[in-house]
Amino acid sequence: MTEWRIRPAACVVTALLVGVGLTGCFGGDPAESSASPTPSQTLLPGVEPTFKTADPEPIPLDAVMVFAGVDPDGTTVSASGYIAGVIENGGTCTFTFSGSGPDVVVTSEGLADSKTTSCGTVQTQISDFTSGTWTAVLSYQSDKTGALTSEPLTVEVP
Residue 105 belongs to a domain with what CATH number? Predict the structure, then answer.
C-alpha cells in the first residue's frame, strides 16, 4: 500500500517542479529582466569597427597607366589605362609615346565600367618607333573632369 502513496506523491512533486521551471518561460515583461544582455560599445584593442559611413570618401580623379610595352610577337606596341574617380562614357583617352623619334599618339574613347572609366588597350605598329627607351603617358579630357595626365611608364623598343 505504501507503493500507491509514493507514486502519487512523486507525481505531485514532479508536476510542481515542471510548473516552477516553466514559469520563467511565461509572464513578466522581458524588458524588466535584469538578466538580458545589453549591447556594448567597447572594442577589443586593435579591432576596428566594420560599419560603413553614410558618405564614403570620394576617389580622387587620376589618369592611371596599367601597362605599356612591346607585344610578345614584336610587331606592335600596346598600352592600357583607366581614369579613377569618374565613371562616364565619351571622354578622350590619348596615349602619347615620347622617345628618340617623333612622338607616337594613339587615342581611344573612354568607356564607363563598374568603378572607373576605361581607356581600353590601344596598339600601334612597332615600325612607328625607333629603337631605344620611350615613355608612355595617358592623358584624358572630358567636360566632367577637365584635363588629366598619368605618371609615365617606360617602354624599351628593340
Answer: 2.60.40.10
